[in-house]
Write a structure and sequence with these properties.
60% helix, 145 residues, mainly alpha
Length: 145
């Protein structure tokens, strides 16, 4: 399991500093807003924690500033994409007007179904001879026209 985790870390295009800042973005943004960036002091603490830059070294002030800029852009873009997906998910289904069909549903018939004959099966049988199914065939033939 450790080898799989190490392989995933090695394949990550972002530095440990980037990931540290990304995971703690909201907290770090609030802390910078309240206390100022103070990059040198932060860099010393990251070095003490073992947080490294993309070259495997303790981060310097310039690297920390640039990494923070990239993290802010990354988090903003990710949140914008998530907001777009959420808006699409919540988009209401348009209401249909009377007679309007739901897209992708084909009508099964374009003409109204003719009414059933009110004649009795006995009268249909007598009219067509002795065939008891003549009435049913006649009704089906009338509907298929």
């Amino acid at each position: 399991m450790a080898r799989v985790s190490a392989a995933a870390r090695e394949a990550d295009p972002h530095s440990g500093l980037f990931r540290w800042m990304e995971r703690r973005h909201d907290w770090l943004a609030a802390d910078i807003a309240e206390h100022g960036a103070r990059w040198a002091a932060r860099c010393r603490e990251w070095a003490a924690l073992g947080v490294l830059d993309g070259k495997g070294r303790a981060p310097g002030v310039g690297v920390a500033k640039e990494t923070w800029r990239r993290v802010v852009e990354h988090v903003k873009a990710r949140r914008e994409r998530a907001a777009v997906k959420e808006a699409e998910r919540r988009r209401p289904v348009p209401a249909l007007r009377d007679g309007e069909l739901v897209p992708c549903v084909r009508p099964t018939a374009t003409e109204p179904t003719p009414p059933l004959s009110r004649s009795s099966p006995e009268s249909a049988a007598s009219a067509s001879g002795d065939d008891p199914l003549a009435h049913i065939r006649a009704t089906m033939a009338a509907r298929s026209k």
